[in-house]
Amino acid sequence: MDVEVTVPEDYMGDIMGDLNSRRGRIQGMEPSNGMQMIRAQVPMAEMFRYAIDLRSMTQGRGFFLMKFARYEEVPFQTAEKIIEAAKEEKKRIEVVTPENIGTYNVMLQAFKPKTENRRGG
Question: 10-residue block means of pLDDT along the chain (121 residues)?
Fold first, then answer.
């Protein structure tokens, strides 16, 4: 994601450190009336709580804009975590087998809509 963060100059160090900790790459900075605008590229997965965190770090005086830039390959360690979580989720999904089909038939009957005879009979 392309991110533009505007903060008071007093908070520059904290914001730069935070963006780096989120795997962000700083592209540049521009001063403007006692504020600094930081341009960076940060993975979207790292930006989910950023509004709350930025407000906390700047005492409510910072704001940011975010725009999709491109897709990028996930780092190997992060990919391993995602794959492991998907495998765990797959293990939790119950498969219908001949041994447990009776249970599912009972459950399906409970949700089956009742049909009325429409011929008036």
Answer: 94 94 94 91 92 94 94 90 88 70 66 61 51
What pTM was estimated for this model as a whole? 0.66
Residues 6+ apart with CB under 8 A from 74: 82
- Domain boundaries, given as residue ranges, for the chain: 2-67, 76-111
Q: How far is Cα 45 from Cα 23, in angstroms, rounded to an integer?
A: 10
2-67: CATH topology:
Alpha-Beta Plaits (3.30.70)
